[in-house]
């Protein structure tokens, strides 16, 4: 489902064609989410797992809104 690789201090995940860059920012975690050549979205959460869950949820909502209604 997701692929993980290290990039400096950021952790990089991929989910459904989107890239998620995770990094700790003091007391919180930051997730920068985008497709290639797309403006990124910034997601903040109290811990790493919450940041990943929020990023996955955001991606799923984006993909659902892209689908044409029948």
Account of the 3D structure:
This protein is an alpha+beta fold. Helix content is 27%, strand content 44%. The chain has one helix at residues 48-66; strands at 3-7, 10-15, 18-25, 28-34, 41-45. The chain has a five-stranded antiparallel beta sheet with strand order 1-2-3-4-5, covered by helices on one side. Strand 2 and strand 3 (18-25) form a beta hairpin. The chain starts with a strand and ends with a helix. The mean pLDDT is 88.
Oligomer: single chain
Supply Rg.
12 Å
Instruction: Characterize the biggest β-sheet.
Output: 5 strands, antiparallel
What portion of the residues fall into strands of 2 or more residues? 35-45%
What is the CA–CA distance across the termini?
Answer: 28 Å
Label the overall shape.
globular
Outline:
With 70 residues, this protein is α+β, with helices and mostly antiparallel strands. The chain contains 1 helix and 5 strands; from the N terminus they run βββββα.
List the helices and strands and how they pair.
Layout: E1 3-7, E2 10-15, E3 18-25, E4 28-34, E5 41-45, H1 48-66
Antiparallel strand pairs: 1-2, 2-3, 3-4, 4-5
Which tags fit this structure?
single chain; 70 residues; alpha+beta; 5-stranded antiparallel beta sheet; 1 helix; 5 strands; 27% helix
